Amino acid sequence: MTEFENRIVVDPKIMGGKPVIKGTRVPVYFILELLSNGWSIDDILREYPHLSREDVLAAIKYAAKVLREEVIVKA
């Protein structure tokens, strides 16, 4: 089991199947958007106290894995 498999879930019944932090409706892409807008992990945890540092790090690791495994097909 990878570091994020127990924290990130994909369920078609939750947020249209987007990857979310387990037990929440907080999608991985939202965490990445916050970080890209200059939020720190501590900022996220202050605004979303139901999340843990490990949840945020799992979202980052999940996104990195997806991008690392992405296959680019040139037309």
UniProtKB/TrEMBL annotation:
InterPro entries: DUF433 (IPR007367), Homeodomain-like_sf (IPR009057), WH-like_DNA-bd_sf (IPR036388)
Pfam assignment, any one: DUF433
Alphabetized PANTHER family for the sequence: SSL5025 PROTEIN, SSR2962 PROTEIN
Listed name of the protein: Antitoxin
Gene source species: Zestosphaera tikiterensis
